[in-house]
Amino acid sequence: MNKKNTLFFLLPVILSFILHVRVLKFDVIGYHVWRQSQTQTVIYNFTFSDNSIFHPQKFDVTTGTSTLLYEFPLYQWVIAQVNNCFGYSVLHTRLLSFLFFVFFLAGFYKLLLKFVSKPIALITNALVCFSPLLYYYCVNPLPDILALGFAAWSLNFFFAFVFSKQGKYFLLFSLFLMLSALVKLPYLLFGGVFLLYAYRAISKKQIKESLIKGLTLLLMLIPVFIWYAKAIPTWTGNTVTSGVLKNSASFLQLLDYFQFNLFSSVPELLTNYAACVFLFVGIFFFFKQRRFTGETHKYFILLLFLFSIYFLFELNLIGTTHDYYLMPFIPLLFLVVAFGVNYFYQKNYIKLLIFIVCLVPLTAWLRINPRWNPETPGFVIDYASEQKFFAELIPQNEKCIIDHDDSHFISLYYLKRQGFSLFKNEISAAVLKDRFLRGGNFLVTENLSLNLNDYPEFDLKELYSKNLKIYKLNLK
């Protein structure tokens, strides 16, 4: 990019960073704080415990192990190495997440240039910069932003290969697809573009080339298969693997989830209300100009189909809350937005374009800013406000029994102690004794009316009482 284009690329990025400055000082709070605390827990344990990337750890040891095998923890491990150099801080997580966000924007800009002119690509990139969903997660502890960045670059390299036939681009496509899928498994679906390429190559009798490329891609994806073959069997009780095949939601409830995400999440969170005019115009001209018949556009139609299947399969889990599951749709949505921007640009509606580009930061800020409220962090505020006191109250090597924490992450993350998390109403005399015999010497509960007479075997010494209570456990 020349200096002028670089400036136009960086302006929305700089503005976004300025708008996020007040958030950088916060510990993990807000919407989906349970998922953020889970991610930050792994970062913390890489920093202070086992730094092996193959051994991510949680604080909860209810299952008998602290190992947490979810996504491959590349995002968490990289941040931990920065902590090892400069000292532990959630600030490092937020800053690096923002850098990963810029990494995505750069890859998406390069992808856009394969299909639209530089002015259209720059305008579209300014719009995607203020997608409310990305505006929220670009500074929060969540590996999805890195997976999205790898996915954008993988698509860029794929189309560079399609247009140039240079093998180096196919290798880069395979590499970045592998990294994207390692960080978050659903992003493997971006590799679906190769299926259409292979089909076309085989129909042209280019069977040998298809086999070589397919074998190259499979070999590159071996780390993904190895990691998740090890990780998925540990996901007991996690509905992500069974999806709608095993769910308690009725058909009408699933239908409500579907319409909510289609008519609320897509325009409000993924796109931004201010930019919806481009989305609607882009969809209109996509069909009017029969772009779906174009050879290149069929790749994106296939991706939309694959991710729609993924969306429907996980619909019961996505519901109306798990918005970050929708992040893979953003490159596809904003390619359509780019078609809408192109129409307005060709019609010379420059003032309208400038107005909307200036409006999207405001609408994103208005929609997302309330999610970062330290007074309502998404959990009992004492965990944050009394964090230093609790660190002194509970010795570092002691284990805690956490009553009333369905997340199994938030409380132990703020205490920075190993322990046993209990669901609401799970506590009983037998459960308490079991956790005590396994090393749990402190009981932390949000139930301020806990009846101590229900636990006659224990002498419970109250150490703290405000919005939660902490007891030291001893057998009588």
In the predicted model, the low-confidence regions spanning at least 5 consecutive residues are: none
Shape: globular
Tally of structural domains: 2
The fraction of residues assigned to DSSP E strands is 5-15%
Relative helix content: 55-70%
Enumerate how many helices there are, as a single number. 21
Count of strand segments: 5
Question: Largest sheet, if any?
Answer: 5 strands, mixed
> What is the average per-residue confidence, as pLDDT, rounded to a whole number?
94
3D architecture notes:
The chain is an alpha/beta fold. It folds into 2 domains: 3-371, no CATH class; 382-475. Helices cover 59% and strands 6% of the residues. The chain has 21 helices and 5 strands. The protein has helices at residues 3-20, 33-48, 74-86, 90-112, 118-129, 132-137, 144-164, 167-183, 192-203, 207-220, 222-231, 251-271, 276-288, 297-313, 315-318, 330-346, 350-368, 382-385, 387-393, 410-415, 429-437; strands at residues 399-403, 419-421, 440-445, 458-465, 469-475. A 5-stranded mixed sheet has the order 2-1-3-5-4, with helices on one face. Helix 1 packs parallel to helix 5 and helix 4 runs parallel beside helix 7. The longest helix has 23 residues, at 90-112. It is globular, with a radius of gyration of 25 Å.
Question: Keyphrases for this structure?
Answer:
single chain; 476 residues; alpha/beta; five-stranded mixed beta sheet; 21 helices; 59% helix; 6% strand; globular
Please give a quick description of this structure.
The chain contains 21 helices and five strands. By secondary structure, the chain is of the alpha/beta class.
